Amino acid sequence: MNEFMNIPRRTFLRFAAGVAAFPAAPHLARAETYPSRPVRIIVGFAAGGPNDIAARVIGQWLSEHLGKPFLVENRPGAASNMATEQVVRSRPDGYTLVMMGPPAVLNPSLYENLNFSFIRDIAPIAGIVRTPEVMLVNPSVPANSVPEFIAYAKANPGKLNMATAGNGSMPHVAGELFKLRAGVDLVTVGYRGGAPALVDLLSGHMHVMFESPIPTIAHVKAGKLRALAVASATRSEVLPDVPVMADFIPGFEASAWYGLGSPKGTPADVVETLNRSVNAGLADATIKQRLTELGGVPMPLSPQEFGKLIADDTEKWGNVIRTAKIRPD
Question: Which residue range is the domain that position 154 belongs to?
Answer without folding.
Answer: 134-247
